[in-house]
Design a protein that fits this description.
The complex is a heterotrimer. Chain A is an alpha+beta fold. In chain A, 33% of the residues lie in helices and 16% in strands. Chain A is built from nine helices and eight strands. In chain B, β5, α12 and β6 form a beta-alpha-beta unit. Chain B has 24 helices and 16 strands. Chain B has four domains: 54 residues, no CATH class; 158 residues, Substrate Binding Domain Of Dnak, Chain:A, Domain 2, CATH 1.20.1270; 151 residues, Rossmann fold (3-Layer(aba) Sandwich), CATH 3.40.50; 212 residues, 3-Layer(aba) Sandwich (Rossmann fold). Classes of the chains: A alpha+beta, B alpha/beta, C alpha/beta. Chains A and B meet through β2 and α9 of A and α3 and α18 of B.
């Protein structure tokens, strides 16, 4: 089964996946109209800033066993075998935040969802775009990601691709193409350098 | 809930006021910066293009996603176009600022600008001379009228070359001519840049970058230079003056008025009004011990350079000075004024006033200044500020001000040297002073406030490199205490001896950000004295904490004029290896100077020292290994 | 040979164990003894039935076919009288013996009784089971003023539930603020202020001496300081204690709860314990502790079930943790919340200017061992995982406190 694979080294932090996700989980399904909906559609993938401000698309891993599912008081979280997806039933959800305490990735949010019961605050997280999949479309976050940080593929293929990339980076001079292009590497090195410089321990203060 | 304030600034006033802002629930630039993270990588690398609506487009830097925009532009073209527009915006900002001064000069000549006058008639006459105006037997106002007319011509499109290019060394002008980048008209080059970067015009990234240099030169040898010179004519050419700096310059028992922005036209009239006996009497009546005018940012630099008016802070301090609760009124003109200021002021009693027809802000009252009404409005505003004193709440002034000496125009530097630049050249030739560096530019929340400026300057003067500074960099060094004669003790032995002999600080304040042209003028004078080019001199530029399009334009006119320039933050060019390589290496063959990018000021200092020693070696002077 | 599994308790630990055993052992006999006759239900949600936001059927967490589908023999409405450890049998009502090869004690906990006069009056309730709530609701009509004893989770939720039902509530708390076992003084003060803002009459430092009534129905509570609180409904929520009266302490070592090892096995081979009755190693406190909370019951039941069915699985230890939403305020805590001032711990905390946010982290050496979050609780699970993993914290502690803390900060 094809799955969404996160390739963190490819994330450029553009947050396009968040916008596409919110749109895909809106009633009107188009960015321009979705932004005008009430309640406002919200993303279920969250690009957080890492240590040096690098992006990372944090998304439900659909764990097995899923800690959120075990912690759920009303039994609102279940595994949908069709897409191997952990899903939350918004009708059963009681917004108790037990899943917030259980999720080791911090990917669950609590708000009124345009697709859920009107006016009811519920736990909301990635559903692997189950509606889009039934229409034969790939998940919205993958479709919009142009840098390859989110891909949709068989796990085996993804593993092989990543192994190959490591092999290439080790033998980059032979193969000629580095795993991380020079411009990206420079960009990240500078970002890291500024971050390190701003650390409290790097002190060159004048008091008063 | 936040990172330690020590990670935000090295300045004690900023740290304490930031803690106060947090306690008061005031959102600051650092909060908004954190909220923006992660920054979009496409935008940071210059790989997103919003120029037309076939797009917007972005190029995948990893090479697998899209490699061309809808129009077919590749990474090189998109990065070059974006950079070109950045330079155009920066050049336009300085140059439009200059235009406002030229218009004021014209109105003074026509007698329609009450309160303004010709403050430096000698400069008026010599400057008019550069424009080929016969000044004999004409009174000052007649000369001013002709000069204003001639200056306006430089803005137009009818000339083959800008008049003031003549100040540049002969060799430099030859290079520009050969590359086809001698600027023709100030507005023309900006206008042409917007044209070239429209979809389907210039799609050779090298050609775009050459024009970007021409556009930047139209600023450095045009708009900014005119702004600086006309400011001197109208407001006086700066001379060394004692002053003070940091947020502690605000006074607990006085009415505090802070001016912010870039153009001295408004603030000069505010200063006059603050000095009027009537207002001072009114302040006393309201229980205040007087009226204290202070500046922030480059309007502050303009006033400080000419009148010793105290400097309350640089770019990242502009919100913080309001959190003192001590500011009765902040009056802004334009550029670098954060639109958040009105919201910050709303937490205190501070009145916020915008003054320019082209710059309005949320939460500010708009009181439009023009040369013909400036005197009157300035009086009204100062009266309102005084009346606002009684609404003051609790005041928090956490630090005592630092003293500084400011006002080192080129004329003042030459004066300090005894009337000719020879002593400076001799000190450089002998090696007591290894060279000189201009440390300029802004603050940027990416860099701990003032850390870049202060660390770099400290390392440079320690190694006998004379530092001249402008803009927010100059405020940083004043706060750090580098602008006193005693600061010579921090310099290396050679520079220390020179500073002590001349009774000057090792870091010379040359003004606001348009005053970077003073550095170019000085460099040209040195090059001419040696019969060589600017690019042969043991000098360098640095913008350790730059943020703005204006700073990008300054950096590029420095490089295009032959000054090696080290940037702290990376401009949005890493998406194109070609553009990055050209700017950091290739330009050396074209203009004899390049950019370097180094966020760490310790390493930037090494780069500059190495460069200066290399230049010394090429001039046949003694050179050290760095 | 098919094994006989006996599980005492049809709470969540018991049913998790039963389901786990059934997944691993298709042929063994599973007997489940429970004193409650309802279908398995969610105990932490009974307060929601009290407040009326859900109805009783919604408490059910397993369907009517649960026992049959898992081939479980239920013996419901029975409390166990004794365990014959040597005879490998559980003794229930009437001396009936239920033999076992593997036994799980998952009897949970009972409300801690209070010593006070007049407890025999009507309309004085505990709140532990859905039957308790049904009885409370039966007496709520005509009730105008309720007194709730105890500011722990039960008392707290009972008070909020009654308030939402439109009953005026006086909450009597022995300590200085509600949830004193779960949160520190500062967070407690925030919760107290929120409750009072919502109209709850909270009395701190209050203790009840007895109840007085008329016609058999409670009318007031007399306080030890001489004060008096009028009420016609009383809920006693002074905590719980493990339900282990039937456990032979000479054969099965007991401290506060039944002591278990990393496989949830008691000191008597083949006899396991899980849930509110069990006392296991606490990850954060680094000592044995009874953490009578739902998620621990779930996990301990699963681990016990796997080990009983022969799959050797180690339990990483328990961790106290709670999340509670109080009107517009959210509170999440885990691990060591108020450490002893013995130099072992380092505490950092932050609050925002608006008084909305409060965060406190407790470290022991280079590991996170506890936290308190008031509002912005979405990343609490990441912190809980950090405590449970016992990994050294490499990111700066200030970053952990910052509101932008997120999982990607933990990436290398």
């Amino acid at each position: 089964m094809k799955k969404v694979v996160v390739n963190p080294q490819r994330c450029v932090g553009c947050m396009q996946c968040m916008i596409a996700c919110a749109t895909a989980h809106s009633r009107t399904q188009s960015l321009f109209t979705a932004a005008l909906e009430t309640p406002t559609p919200k993303p279920r993938v969250h690009v957080g800033a890492g240590l040096c401000g690098d992006g990372f698309p944090n998304r439900c891993r659909h764990c097995d066993p899923a800690p959120c599912m075990l912690a759920c008081l009303p039994g609102a979280i279940h595994r949908d075998p069709e897409l191997d997806t952990v899903r939350i039933d918004p009708d059963r959800c009681i917004n108790c935040a037990s899943c917030a305490m259980a999720c080791p990735f911090g990917v669950i949010r609590y708000h009124v969802d345009p697709l859920g019961p009107p006016g009811k605050t519920v736990a909301v997280k990635c559903d692997n775009c189950v509606d889009r999949r039934r229409e034969g479309r790939i998940p919205a976050c993958v479709e919009v990601c142009k840098s390859g940080a989110l891909t949709f593929e068989e796990m085996g293929a993804a593993m092989k691709r990543q192994t190959d990339a490591v092999a290439r980076s080790v033998a980059s001079e032979v193969e000629g193409k580095p795993a991380i292009p020079a411009g990206v590497a420079l960009h990240r090195a500078l970002r890291r350098a500024s971050w390190e410089m701003n650390q409290e321990r790097k002190e060159n203060s004048h008091e008063g | 809930m936040k990172d330690s304030v020590k990670e935000k600034s090295i300045a004690q006033d900023s740290r304490l006021l930031l803690e106060k802002a947090r306690a008061d629930g005031v959102e600051t630039v650092w909060d908004r910066f954190a909220a923006q993270l992660p920054n979009c990588g496409y935008c940071e690398m210059g790989l997103s293009c919003r120029i037309c609506v076939m797009g917007p487009c972005r190029i995948d830097p990893f090479g697998e996603g899209p490699q061309r925009g809808v129009c077919g532009a590749d990474a090189d073209i998109i990065v070059a176009r974006n950079l070109g527009r950045m330079i155009a915006a920066g050049a336009a900002s300085h140059s439009d600022h200059g235009r406002d001064l030229v218009e004021t000069l014209a109105e003074v000549a026509e007698g329609r600008a009450e309160g303004y006058g010709i403050a430096d008639e000698a400069k008026l006459r010599s400057f008019a001379g550069e424009y080929g105006i016969d000044t004999n037997d004409k009174d000052a106002l007649a000369v001013a009228a002709e000069l204003a007319e001639a200056l306006q011509e430089d803005y137009g499109t009818r000339k083959k070359a800008l008049t003031l290019l003549a100040r540049a060394p002969e060799k430099r002008r030859e290079i520009w001519k050969k590359l086809g980048i001698a600027p023709r008209g100030i507005d023309r080059e900006t206008s042409e840049m917007m044209h070239r970067t429209h979809m389907g015009v210039d799609n050779d990234w090298q050609s775009i970058l050459l024009h970007a240099m021409r556009n930047a030169l139209s600023d450095g040898w045009g708009g900014s230079l005119i702004a600086s010179e006309v400011s001197d004519i109208l407001c006086g050419t700066p001379t060394p003056t004692p002053t003070t700096a940091n947020a502690g310059v605000l006074k607990k028992d006085q009415v505090n008025i802070v001016v912010h922005g870039h153009n001295p036209v408004v603030s000069e009239m505010i200063l006059l009004a603050c000095q009027s006996p009537e207002m001072i009497a009114l302040a006393r009546e309201k229980g205040a011990d007087g009226i204290n005018l202070a500046g922030v940012c480059c309007t502050g630099n303009e006033l400080q350079m000419r009148h010793g008016i105290p400097m309350a802070g640089n770019h990242l301090s502009t919100e913080l000075v309001l959190t003192t609760g001590a500011v009765e009124m902040m009056i802004v003109d334009y550029q670098c004024i954060m639109p958040s200021l009105g919201q910050v002021a709303a937490c205190y009693h501070t009145k916020m006033i915008s003054t320019s027809d082209k710059a309005r802000f949320p939460g500010m009252e708009h009181r439009e200044f023009h040369p013909d009404n400036a005197r009157k409005i300035a009086g009204e505003l100062v009266r309102e500020a005084v009346e606002n004193f009684s609404r003051r709440g609790e005041v928090y002034l956490p630090v005592a001000p630092v003293t500084a000496t400011t006002g080192f125009s080129v004329e003042a530097v030459v004066q300090a040297l005894g009337g000719t630049p020879e002593p400076l050249l001799d000190a450089i030739k002998k090696g007591a002073i290894r060279g000189a560096a201009g440390v300029v530019g802004c603050n940027n929340p990416r860099i701990k406030q003032d850390h870049g400026h202060v660390t770099l300057m400290r390392r440079l003067i320690e190694n006998d490199i004379l530092v001249v500074d402008t803009g927010c960099a100059a405020v940083a060094s004043a706060k750090a205490g580098f602008k006193t004669a005693e600061a010579a003790a921090m310099a290396g032995d050679g520079l220390k001896a020179v500073c002590q002999a001349l009774k000057i600080p090792p870091v010379l304040h040359m003004g606001s950000c348009v005053d970077n042209v003073r550095i170019l003028t000085l460099a040209s004078a040195l090059a001419n004295a040696l019969g060589t080019d600017i690019s042969d001199l043991p000098i360098a530029g640095a913008a350790p904490e730059w943020y703005s399009e204006k700073a990008a334009a300054i950096g590029l006119y420095f490089v295009a004029s032959g000054v090696y320039t080290v940037l702290g933050p990376m401009p949005p060019i890493t998406g194109s290896a070609n553009v990055a390589r050209l700017l950091t290496q290739g330009l050396n063959d074209a203009v004899g100077a390049t950019f370097a990018v180094e966020p760490d000021p310790e390493k930037a200092a090494l780069l500059i020292r190495r460069h200066i020693e290399d230049k010394r070696r090429n001039l046949g002077l003694d050179a050290k290994a760095v | 040979m098919a094994l006989d599994y006996v599980i005492i308790g049809n709470g969540v630990a018991g049913i998790q164990a039963a389901e786990t055993i059934r997944r691993l052992d298709r042929t063994g006999h599973i007997t489940l003894i429970g004193d409650e006759t309802h279908l398995p239900y969610c105990r932490p949600m009974i307060s929601m039935a009290l407040e009326g936001t859900i109805d009783f059927p919604a408490l059910t967490i397993r369907g009517p076919d649960f026992y049959e589908a898992n081939a479980i023999t239920p013996i419901l409405g029975e409390r166990v009288a004794a365990i014959d450890v040597d005879g490998r049998a559980v003794i229930i009502g009437g001396g009936r013996r239920v033999p076992f090869h593997r036994l799980l004690i998952a009897t949970g906990a009972d409300p801690r009784p209070v010593a006070a006069a007049g407890l025999d009056l009507n309309n004085i309730h505990y709140m532990r089971s859905q039957d308790h709530v049904r009885r409370m609701l039966a007496s709520i009509d005509g009730a105008r003023r309720a007194t709730v004893l105890g500011g722990g989770l039960v008392g707290f939720k009972a008070a909020c539930g009654l308030l939402r039902r439109g009953v005026g509530v006086s909450l009597l708390i022995g300590s200085g603020h509600p949830l004193s076992m779960q949160v520190d003084d500062e967070a407690g003060a925030m919760l107290l202020a929120e409750l009072r803002r919502r109209g709850l009459d909270v009395r701190v430092g209050a203790a009840v001496a007895g109840f007085e009534g008329e016609n058999g129905r409670v009318r007031s509570a007399a306080l030890k300081d001489g004060g008096r609180v009028d009420c016609d409904l009383v809920v006693i929520g002074k905590g719980v204690r493990p339900a282990l009266d039937f456990v032979p302490r000479d054969r099965i070592p007991v401290d506060l709860g039944i002591l278990v090892d990393a496989r949830m096995e008691t000191g008597a081979p083949g006899i396991y314990a899980a849930g509110d009755v069990a006392e296991a190693e606490d990850i954060a406190r680094r000592t044995r502790w009874v953490n009578a909370i739902w998620p621990e019951a779930v996990e301990q039941g699963r681990v016990a079930g796997m080990n009983m069915a022969g799959r050797q699985v180690a339990y990483p230890g328990s961790l106290s943790r709670n999340v509670i939403r109080v009107f517009d305020m959210d509170a999440m805590t885990a691990g060591v919340v108020t450490p002893d001032d013995d130099g072992l711990y380092e505490v950092i905390r932050e609050r925002d200017a608006g008084g909305r946010l409060y965060r406190k982290l407790v470290f022991r050496e280079d590991r996170l061992v506890g936290f308190t979050l008031i509002n912005r609780i979405e990343q609490g699970g990441v912190m809980t995982a950090l405590i449970r993993s016992r990994l050294p914290i490499r990111v700066s502690r200030r970053r952990l406190l910052a509101p932008d803390f997120n999982w990607s900060l933990l990436l290398p």
